[in-house]
Amino acid sequence: MNKNLNKTKIISYQIGDFIARIFHFEQIDSTNTFLKKYFQAKRSQFTQTEELSILEGIGALADLQTSGRGRLARTWYSPLDEGLYFSIILMPKIEPSQITLISLMAAIATAEAIMELCQIKVDIKWPNDILINKRKVAGILIESSFEGNSLNYVVVGIGINLKQKTFPSNLNHPASSLFLETNLIIEKETFLPVLLEKLIQWYKILKIKSDNVISRWEELSSFAYGKEIRVNINNQDLVLTTMGLDGCGSLRVKDENGKEFSLYGNEINTER
């Protein structure tokens, strides 16, 4: 397993009938990487697939990540005790085509937790970057495992800049922290229970009525409708206008000629 395992403690949270059991590391390479390895190591101990459900709710929290990761193989800046670096295993029974809904759900939960604790307006850049004043304060990395056409599990990784005062100059996008935007010092131990409550609330909504996830995301995001964006598709820069989300969480757009289509995993930019 992980050489840092003996430096952890386990924290349990119960939200309704959902129990989260979280390994709290002083230092680790990546909370997402740990949970993927943990799942694979544990699955060999179970004789039936149904028994794997006991792994739902296993999480990892780190004081520091040495190899934190974001979307598109980017590095997530994870200095000691300045942010929330957290991942959790979920096992939703959804179609593979709906996997983007997990990203949207996690973005909603993160945005609502920030708004509750900081009383500040946030924005969501599709699919799951959390912005304040056009600067990124939180990001989400969803990593999925499939067996055939069935979703096995997802690891939901959430990184939130809580207390950083400065950032490296080589980051891909302008970054900020909750401290820089609000002058509030919020510890991860304060933020995590609120985040978990929101995450489990929206996870349950996703499983019952996913349309509510779509509509809530559109309410929170200025990118949902009428936003002019630039996207590179097949090495061609296109200027597109957003038209909301489809039922699977993809971003609907139209080009300058009025042709309509959906974006799936593309990186979008609002700069011309």
Which helices and strands, and how do they pair?
Elements: E1 8-15, E2 18-25, H1 31-43, E3 58-62, E4 83-90, H2 100-118, E5 123-125, E6 129-132, E7 135-147, E8 150-161, H3 178-182, H4 188-208, H5 211-220, E9 225-233, E10 236-245, E11 251-254, E12 260-263, E13 268-269
Parallel strand pairs: 2-3
Antiparallel strand pairs: 1-2, 3-4, 4-8, 5-6, 6-7, 7-8, 9-10, 9-13, 10-11, 11-12
Helix pairs in contact: 2-4, 2-5
Structural classification: alpha+beta
Helix content: 25-40%
Largest sheet, order of strands side by side? 1-2-3-4-8-7-6-5
Tally of discrete structural domains: 2
CATH superfamily of the largest domain: Bira Bifunctional Protein, Domain 2
Features:
272 residues, alpha+beta, BirA Bifunctional Protein, domain 2, SH3 type barrels, eight-stranded mixed beta sheet, five-stranded antiparallel beta sheet, 5 helices, disordered N terminus
Structural notes for this entry:
The chain is of the alpha+beta class and 272 residues long. The chain has 2 domains: 216 residues, Bira Bifunctional Protein, Domain 2 (BirA Bifunctional Protein, domain 2), CATH 3.30.930.10; 45 residues, SH3 type barrels (Roll), CATH 2.30.30.100. 25% of the residues lie in helices and 33% in strands. The protein is built from 5 helices and 13 strands. An 8-stranded mixed sheet has the order 1-2-3-4-8-7-6-5, sandwiched between helices. A hairpin with a 5-residue loop joins strand 10 and strand 11. Helix 2 crosses helix 5. The longest helix is centred in the last third of the chain and has 21 residues. The N terminus is likely disordered.
